What we know:
Chain A is α/β, with parallel strands linked by helices and about 250 residues long. Chain A is built from ten helices and nine strands. In chain A, helix 3 (about 70-80) runs parallel beside helix 5. The model of chain A has no long low-confidence stretch (mean pLDDT about 95). The radius of gyration of chain B is 21 Å and the shape is globular. Chain B has two domains: about 5-235, Rossmann fold, CATH 3.40.50.970; about 240-350, 3-Layer(aba) Sandwich (Rossmann fold). Chain B is about 40% helix and about 20% strand. The interface of A and B includes residues 64, 67 and 77 of A. Strand 2 of chain A pairs parallel with strand 9 of chain B.
Amino acid sequence: xxxxxxxxxxIVQPCGFCGGCGHGxxxxxxxxxxxxxxxxxxxxxCVDIAxxxxxxxxxxxxxxxGPHGRLPAVATGIKKTRPDDIVYIHAGDGASYTIxxxxxxxxxxxxxxxxxxxxxxxxxxxxxGQMSLGTTLLGQATTSTPRGRNESxxxxxGDFLQALSQFDFEFAARGALYSVKEINRTKQLIxxxxxxxxxxxxxxxxxxxxACPTNxxxxxxxxxxxxxxxxxxxxxxxxxxxxxGMSDG
Amino acid sequence: MAxxxxxxxxxxxxxxxxRAGCRFYAGYPITPQxxxxxxxxxxxxxxxxxxxxGESEVxxxxxxxxxxxxGNRAMTSSSGPGFDLKxxxxxxxxxxxxxxxxxxxxxxxxxxxxxxxGQDSYLQAAKGGGNGDYRLLVLCPNSVQECVDFTYQAFxxxxxxxxxxxxxxxxxxxxxxxxxxLPDYVEPNINRYDxxxxxxxxxxxxxxxxxxxxYMGDRPWEAHIREKLHRMQEQEQRWESYLVExxxxxxxxxxxxSRVAKQAVKMGRAKGLKLGxxxxxxxxxxxxxxxxxxxPDVKGYMVVEMSIAGQMLEDVYGATQFSKxxxxxxxxxxIPVAEDVLARAEQALRxxxxxxxxx
Lengths: 249, 359
Ligand SMILES: Cc1ncc(C[n+]2csc(CCOP(=O)(O)OP(=O)(O)O)c2C)c(N)n1
Ligand code: SF4
Ligand SMILES: [Mg+2]
């Protein structure tokens, strides 16, 4: 069957992401899911003050930006005001697991029916590639750990998605973007997150392993290979919790 | 139908907010304003609104930022170090000119400070506190009825100017109990403004709640903000004047100190001393106009304030263009006592006090 690829109708301008960046793929997946589920007219885009910020204008939706790390709280205020709207968060790993970890924990605890997409690229992309305390791997060189992250002075990264999934909320899963198969699987996870909101279920957290070729100083192809071979080995791709019972197949 | 109730200042603020149509409150407990949060916890849901005990003041004001941009009448409250943590979100509200009401019931001291009443967060409230060139419209109640009235008006003012309104009280006003008349209920409509964020059909113009200059252009935005601040400065100065026309010395005070200063004026007048009082009701815009009605031969002004070095002093000097000496009656952690406030004025009038230097 021949399919014509077309731009989702809610993406209205070229994005500002670097070539090979996962953020742009995620933006497209979000737009496709909204369109396919027929909920674009109800959606509100909550973006962090980081590379995901580009989607504020890229998406033809009402949106809100920042403060850095606080989007779970911001989205809580919006969802409580407009419970019938589809409220989603597009944020980075630094925002979600470091500066905003308290906000992330508490949207899980409150189980607010919001869909949160965390882009785990292992660095602070926006500010030039510094260490992201929760996700930069041991030995990984960043602009703030030029000789590589070492445990004694920087501590070790952790699997926040797994840790958070102990709490009582709707859905937690991790996807990646290094192959068509993984992109399609990630799309299903994001879609599930939106469906949960449509069905008035609780909070959905989807983490996506993503490449930052610019700050990793790798080509897009090599960066995606690194996600597959190195990053995914540390942060397993699977469904961590699903109250509604999505199979992990 | 107007209803009368015996209430604490903190509770009266919460009740007035609900009656004004506030349907989103988030806050983190801190003395001396926790009753406000507790009152919201007890009554907000019954009014059809949302109460969230936030994980921090930062999270609470961020929720208010989201709720306000979504069109809700939203509010948070705090004090001292908790109010410090609100500054990030207040600046975000200012960046999009989103209206919201914030309450600071000042406690005394620096850092952790004390849990009792203070007025030493005046500068932070009146001059800003977050980054960037914005101002809050700052209303200073000195009675429980004013806690009701100012809170009720605050939501309209916030929307009129698309500006955060701050209710700046102190621990004493928050804890004080009086009979109050409560106003009628307002039911909010979250879609009444075209700047709110919500789901929209393709083709509709979209709103982006973020720095407005990116959409308006830098120069037009700066001109717009400048014009708004000047308009507020001109139109919103509020104050109460008491016996200033013939006064030889005029106290300037807000909140609990203004109640005591008024008492000192009465006691002084009974002894034949011509004292007066200017009570700023707006800390910003500072009521410079109030000084125009003062006796031109007034010998000086005296700031009565629970602080160390006199935070309102620079506003008084600004209002008088340094044309008159100004003194301080700074009582620090202690609530001023009328006899002492009067004695301090007598000292000033006898020429025994050096005018206070504004820092
Ligand atoms: C309060 C605050 N601190 C710091 C910053 C600067 N800052 C912007 S984005 C960012 C880190 C972004 O990293 P991440 O959340 O992982 O997003 P990425 O750009 O990697 O997708 C930082 C430190 C800010 N905007 N606000
Ligand atoms: S810096 Fe990294 S995360 Fe940001 S747009 Fe470029 S590749 Fe993407
Ligand atoms: Mg990152």
